[in-house]
Prior knowledge:
The chain has 164 residues and is α/β, with parallel strands linked by helices. The protein has four helices and ten strands. Strand 9 (153-155) and strand 10 form a beta hairpin. The N and C termini lie far apart (35 Å).
Amino acid sequence: MDDTYIHFLTTGGTIDKEYRTRRGTRNLTVGPPAVERILDTIVPEPTFEYAVETVCKKDSLDVDADDRAQVAAACREAPGEQVVITHGTDTMTETAAALDGDKTVVLTGAATPQRMVDSDAAFNVGTAIGAVQTLDSGVYIAMGGGVYPHDAVEKRDDGQFAPK
């Protein structure tokens, strides 16, 4: 594996949510990994090799200790040294705290589902891709144009991530 390989792990969360309509009701459900659609929009193509692996498909409020252990194991077992994890924003910091810092790992997500017109998903994934290729090993969070060590950031009541 060379320095231009990024392993993407997906866990669900708002970034992957989409509306499903059934008999007059609309439900917001976790759909296929948004990161695949985002990567498909890179023209002419990404300048790095990558693979996308789904660990779970949950709202982050439903992610528990067993799920975090699975994410940590998938991260350890991922080929290469660069991992981007898409995750729901509500418990992103808890999952980040459960990860080893042996590789360069960047967690990101979205406040608005990628399928929606004004989503921040592509911007956040792009920030995470740039960050994972330039940072030293450790665990980071990339949201809203900021990149922070996982233990130095918090999600505020207004939904923004900011330094503690």
